[in-house]
Amino acid sequence: MFCLRCVVALGVVFSVSACSVDSPKSRYILAEKLWTDGNYPAAVTEFERVIAKDPNGSLGLQALFRAAMTQTIYLSQHADAVEKFKRYIDRAEEVESVWEAQKQIGEILFSKTEQYDAAIRHYRNLLKLRPDAPEAPEFLMRIGRANFFLYQFDAAKQSFQELIRDFPKDELVERATLEIGNTVFSKGGLSAVKTTQGVETYQEAMDAFQEFLKKFPKSRFRAEAEFGVASCLEEMDQLDEAYHAYEALRGRYPSPNVVEIKLVRIRERKEQRSR
Asked: Best label site of 94, 153, 158, 240, fewest CB within 10 Å?
């Protein structure tokens, strides 16, 4: 009888242990251990088991967020991460964690997968939700850069101007001011033919670079803006002025070989004209 009671007792223990091992909490603890050990695929698998067992509970939501973060940061499973972040946004009630999930989607669209059209729409929606958010200037910068990468130069310029207008004291204003010059210059480069409109575009770009130098004389981007001025002069066939401007950048521009190539090219162009 004693042995039978022992067997029964052991059976109960094993049964309880089995339930405990398969509980959401135990699965979550296991997932975190796997994550700490660097076994990210297995950790995600365990997080997903927690989500399946507790889809709307606090532990399930926490697992959903952790799985999404792990997939985008460590596994480059960005599409799955976006899907999980969206599910989290739909289910969670904690405002700041939902906002963080929204920002992570933007990061994936802009930086990880370079889906610039989708990134623009996403960041515009976030600006509608929180127009005065601390991240708003960064959102506008990314909208501008995304438009730039899509060759939508007018829209890019407008986004940079919007940043400068709405957040005049933000540290990104300096970079946005420079980006206006870069954007207008790139717009001029769309046409290989030197038309009156093209020259006017390069003049506009040069004015933007000079405005930057006036506003931020001690900027760490000063050499980049001076290079922009020299490039505009070159494109407008003001070769002597361009040559002197490039020459003045020797030893200061981050890519010295580029400056030397520019100087050689201008000398070659001047020689061809003199023949």
From this structure: 240
